[in-house]
Each structure stands twice: as structure tokens, then as C-alpha cells.
Amino acid sequence: MTSLLLKCFVLLAISLLLDAKNGSKSQPSACFCKLQGEVDDCSCKVENLDSLNNRKVYPVLKSLLQRDYFRYFKVNLIKPCPFWSDDSRCALKDCHVQSCTEDQVPEGLKGNKNEREPNKYSKEAQKEEPNCNEERKLGALDRTISAESMEAFKNWTQHDDKQETFCEIDDEYTPDCQYVDLLLNPERYTGYKGASPHRIWKSIYEENCFKPEKLVYGSKKSLAGSMEGLCLEQRAFYRLVSGLHTSINLHLCNEYLFPAKNLLSSPEFGPNTEEFIRRFDPKPTKGQGPQRLKNLYFTYLVELRALVKAAPYLEEEDFFTGNPEEDKDVKEGVKDFLEIIKSFPDHFDESKLFKGDPKVAEKLKTEFREHFRNISRIMDCVGCDKCKLWGKLQVQGMGTALKILFSGDRIGLESTVNAHHKQRFQLRRSEIVSLFNAFGRLSSSIQTIEKFRKLTS
Q1: Which of 177, 209, 253, 384 is catalytic?
Q2: Is 156 known as a binding-site position?
Q3: Cα–Cα distance measured from residue 348 to residue 301, given in angstroms and rounded to the nearest whole number
Q4: Which end of the chain is flanked by fewer CB atoms within 10 Å, N or C?
Q5: Which portions of the chain have biased composition (kind: Basic and acidic residues) (predicted)?
Q6: d(C-alpha 135, C-alpha 193), whole Å
Q7: How far apart are the C-alpha atoms of 430 and 76, rounded to whole Å?
């Protein structure tokens, strides 16, 4: 009996020591302490969005975004930063794509898919600034585009030129624009860290975002109660940006580069629970982490509502690629997707925004629009091509969602925009592609939260 008790005490002591060494298994669950109940400034519950997204939306949307119409995004990645001349990152100087017109792209231009990344991403290396070669390789774009796709793009452009346009999309027709295959360039860890990305986000939060008065980006000061000084529109803007920021960070945590386990293996991408805890646990973030995760759900709701409002318009879109069978499948897939999200009973209500005194509301809406326009311009200052690609795409997608929400004869849950009023409302191909892919990123992020919930439980 004495021997048995002694063994129990020894095992208990070992367990306590291991918990202390690993920071305790119960700690990571604190990341999810706010992920329940109603989304802030909305009536929808987090649990309902988890169920909708993970069971219905994510599987359908993931498949849809593999299609040619959505996988190719036309973007200008060499547009100069309008706010500062140099972000002091080697990637900005060396890791850019030499753009050319579609007719100039040679058939044999292929990315080197067999090149392996060097094993230089140890725990110690993550604490240091990555050297130029490491960052350049991780941040470089795979520019592989087949000759067949390049020929099809010409027909796509001719088709778009025949459509009435609602507004001009930045860079759409400049010779510096190029098509990028999103499937060959997934959003993941690139080694882009330190002063440069900090400067990007600091500029967004400090200069172009409505925020709590005393909150300084990077200070890690608690946000408890600090949102009370902001009106609904200002809170909405802040949560939109925070939700986007959270989504990007979740993808970096989920697609993190780990060093090779031995000399015969290669570095691999995968989920990093330590990085997730560092960014979202209450303790290292001074209480901000869980709220950041919840803001993701607000951003998701806003873009979800935009897709529903634009459903009549999108159902009339032909999703032209020049392949009749492919176009038919995409059209049917989009219709199935829209039916799923239209059936959701608790959407974001945009009519609650910009109410009250008309002059005050109009002034606030103008500030809202100008702030967001500046954020889209800041994306040209990102010093990593892959980061810039996904930053520009997701910001444009969010901008398209806001355009939809405040278009049409009226706003509110009963309002829609459709293809029968093209003189008053029009979406270009790049807007549709960015809208669906941006929402796809948010959908993937919510699914990723569930993954980390299981990994840290």
C-alpha cells in the first residue's frame, strides 16, 4: 500500500513539473474565451457562424475557388509606395516580379517547383531578422502561367471590355498588371517580419483607422472598455480591419515553416500552436488576443451579408473563361453557394450604419470611405510580393463588399443589387474574384480556429 501511494505521488509530481514546463495545457484554451455568444454590435452568435461555415460554407467555397475563374487574379505588384520611398527590407528591393504585358510573356517562363528551401528556420533563427536570400525565396511569387491560360486571358479581357462598368479599378489596364495564379501562391509564412510589417500595420491603425483614443499600436495595452468612446460606425471600421489582421495572422500560424527533422527530409509548412498562443492568448497579448479572434467573426458577417445582397447580380453573371463546360459548372457552383448563405437567418444589417443627422452621417461616411481608400494604397508599401498579393486582394475584396452594402436603391436586410440596374451598379471581374477569395480567406480562418481549438485542448 505504501509503495502504491509513493508511486502515485511520484507520478503526480512529474505531471505537475511537465505542466509547469509546458505552460500548462489549460492555458491555450483561454484564447477562445470570447468565442461564444453574440458577435459585437450584431445579433448573430459565434456558435451559429461556426456551424454555418465549417459544415456548409467552407467545403463548398474551397472547391469553388479552385476553378479557373477564381484562381487567376490580375494585380500590379510593382506600383510604388505612395507614402514612403523605401521600407528598408531586402525583399522590397530584390523580391519583385518583373511584369510584362500578356503578349510578352514567353511560353517557357516556368517557376522552379523542385527548388527546396534551405534548412535555416530553427527556433533561434526565428528570433533574428531573416537574411535577404531567405526572405526573397519565401516571399517570391511562382509566376507559372500556361500558354493556354495566357491565350484565354485575352478573351477574358475582350469580354470584360464589353461590359458596362460602375467604377474604374486601380491598375486594371496598366501594362504593369499581371495575372497571378493564386493556387500556386498560397497565403502562408514568408519570413516577412520585423520593422517593415510593423510599420504597415502601425500606419493602418494609427493614421487610417478609427480606434480607441488612447490605444497605440504595438503597446499591448488592454482594450477593456476602450471601445466605448467610439460610435457604431467607428467601431465597425476598427473591427473590420482587426478581423482582417486576425485572418492574415491565422494563416501565418497555420502555414508556418518548420525546419527539416533530419538531413534526409525537407522543411515543411504546418500549424504552429506556439505562434498561435503568442498572437492570441490573453497573457502575451495583454487581453487583446481573444477579442482579435472575435473581430474576425464581425468581418466575416459583413462580407457574408455583401455576398447575399449581391446574390441576384451574381446569379446573372456568366463567369466567362471561354470554356463553356467550365463556365456552366462555375455558375452552378456559385448558385449552390449562394443558396447556402441566403438560407442563414441572422445576417449583418448595414442599415444600422450612418443613421441620424444626414450631414453628420454623410461626413462620417466620407471619412469611412477615405480611410479605407488609404488602407488600400498602403498595401503597395508591403515589402514582400506574396504578402502584397494577398493584402491587395483581401483589401480589395473588403472594399467590394462595402461598395455592395451601400449600393442600390436602399440599404438593409431586404435590399439587393441585381444585374437589371447595371447603369447604377456594376462589378468587374477583379472585384468578383477578390470578393470571393477574400471571403474564402475569412472562411478558412474560422475553420483554422477550430483546428487550433483541438490542437491546444
Answers
A1: 384
A2: no
A3: 6
A4: N
A5: 110-130
A6: 9
A7: 12
Q: What is the DSSP letter of 189?
A: -
For the cut 90, the answer to whether the pLDDT of residue 393 exceeds it is yes
Of residues 42, 90, 253, 387, which has the active-site annotation? Answer: 387
CB 188 within 8 A of CB 255: yes
130: which 3 cell numbers?
531573416
Angle between the 232-254 and 273-280 helix axes, to the nearest 10 degrees? Answer: 160
Backbone angles phi, psi at 64, to 5 degrees: -65, -40
Helix (H, G, I), strand (E, B) or coil at 126: helix
Say how far apart CA 303 and CA 348 lie, in whole Å: 9
Q: Give me the long-range contacts of 408-411 (CB less than 8 A, separation at least 24).
A: 408/309, 410/351, 411/350, 411/351
**Ordered DSSP codes for 236-273:** HHHHHHHHHHHHHHHHHHHTEEEPPSSTTS--EEE--H
Q: DSSP letters of 359-398?
A: HHHHHHHHHHHHHHHHHHHHGGG-SSHHHHHHHHHHHHHH
242 labelled ligand-binding: yes
33 is catalytic: no
Q: Three cell numbers at 207?
A: 493614421
Our CA dihedral for 357, 361, 362, 367, rounded to 10 degrees, sits at 150
* 116 assigned binding-site residue: no
Quote the CA–CA distance of 338 and 160 in Å, as a whole number: 23
pLDDT, one tens digit per residue, over 261-312 is 888 888 899 999 999 999 999 999 988 999 999 999 999 999 999 999 999 9
Q: With 50 as the cut, is the pLDDT of residue 158 above it? A: yes
42 noted as active-site residue? no
Residues with Cβ within 8 Å of residue 192, at least 6 apart in sequence = 89, 91, 135, 138, 139, 382, 383, 384, 387
- The 10s digit of each residue's pLDDT in 186-215 is 999 888 888 888 899 988 888 766 765 555
Name 74's bridge partners: 179
* String of DSSP letters for 303-331: HHHHHHHTHHHHHT-----S-HHHHHHHH
Residue 98: all three cell numbers together: 518583373
Query: Which pTM does this prediction carry?
Result: 0.79
Cα–Cα distance for residue pair 324/176, rounded to 1 Å: 30
Q: Which amino acid is at 239?
A: R
Which residues have C-beta within 8 Å of that of residue 289, sequence separation ≥ 6? 31, 279, 280, 281, 282
The residue that leads in pLDDT, 184 or 138, is: 184
Q: 96 labelled as ligand-binding?
A: no
305 in a known ligand binding site: no
Rounded to whole angstroms, the Cα distance separating 95 from 77 reads 10
Q: Going by C-beta distance under 8 Å and a sequence separation of 6 or more, which residues neighbour residue 200?
A: 87, 378, 381, 382
How many angstroms separate the CA atoms of 386 and 96, rounded?
10
